[in-house]
Structures are given as C-alpha cells and as structure tokens.
Amino acid sequence: MHTPKFLQHLRTNVRSIQTLVETELLPLPEALLNGKPAPERWSALECVEHLNRYCRYYNPALARALRHPAAARAEVQYSWLGRKSLDMVRPGSRKQHKTVKHMNPAGSLLTVAVLQEFLQHQKQLAALLQQAATADLNRKAVPVEFFRLLKLRTGEALEFVVLHEQRHVQQALRDVRQAQEAAL
Question: Which InterPro entries match (predicted)?
Fold first, then answer.
C-alpha cells in the first residue's frame, strides 16, 4: 500500500477507536465497565488497561523510531515477523492468544481513569501518525515488546498497535454487552 494511503487508513482507524471509547464506553457506569461476561474473561476496563500497557511501551518506541526523518518509500513493505504479528492481532481473527504476564491486567482494580489514559495515548498515536509521513516506514526500528532482540519495521509496528487496539476495543464492547445481558 502507498505510504500516504496507509497512514490515512491508520489515522481514520485511530479516530474511530477514539470515538467508540468516548461514546460507547466512557458514559457507562464503572460497575458495568468492570463486569465480566465470564470469570476467566477480561472486563471492558481490563481490555483497555491491557492496551494502555502496550501504549506505554510502543508509543515511546515509535517516537524514537520516528525521531530521524528520512525519505519515505512509496510502498509499505512487510517482513515475515510483521505479517505474523499483524495476523495475530487482526480484529477478525477468532484465535485467542495468551498475553505475557506483565501485560495481563486480570484482577486489577480499575476505574474510568483507564479510559481517560487510553484517550491520551490515542492523541499521542495520532501525532505519531502525522510525524510518520516524513519517515521511512520500512526501516526495522521498533523492538518487539516481549522479545526486544526482534524488531518490527516502523510501519508494521504502527499497524500492529492500531489493529491490536481495534481488536481489544471490540472485545471491550462485546464484554459490556454481555455483562449487561447477564445483569438482566
């Protein structure tokens, strides 16, 4: 995909994620946001806290990768690792994956501050996507969070973050609906 179209697509998705959180989750009572559809599942706030933990790592890593402007290539390219990582987090994928322990928020005491923090991360991500227009998105510059010797290309990492957020925001919305149904 051409770099400008790729970045516009990601920016549109980030705005959509922000809107969903602001309109569908933020107005809900905290008790509902902490409700779990099943004991082994995450609540909506746990889903978003999981994303916050990833944002705390990836937003600064992306900022470092984008710090050095370069001539952008016309096409965003993918490595084997990038394709595999993206396939794992695509929102349409029904396959569940275990998360690493320090990224698992299960059992955390959470408040709506989790949503507010997430929205701040989204503003940072939107700014990073603007900055990415002057970067080489095919440069391997972003260490994978759980195994930092491996690096994603900058474009892959940007797409990974957005797809991962879409997946878990959709999960949070499903969890809220299921918690509402269980309460009836």
Answer: DinB-like (IPR024775), DinB/YfiT-like (IPR034660)
Cβ–Cβ under 8 Å, residues 112 and 42: no
What percent of the chain has pLDDT above 70? 90
Distance between CA atoms of residues 64 and 117, nearest Å: 21
Q: What is the four-CA torsion angle of 85, 77, 56, 93, rounded to 10 degrees?
A: -30
CATH architecture under which domain 3-183 falls:
Up-down Bundle (1.20)
- pLDDT of 41 above 90: no
State the CB neighbour count (10 A cutoff) for residue 129.
Answer: 23
**Structure token digits, residue 29:** 């009572």
Residue 107, by phi and psi: left (phi above 0), alpha (psi -120 to 50) or beta? left
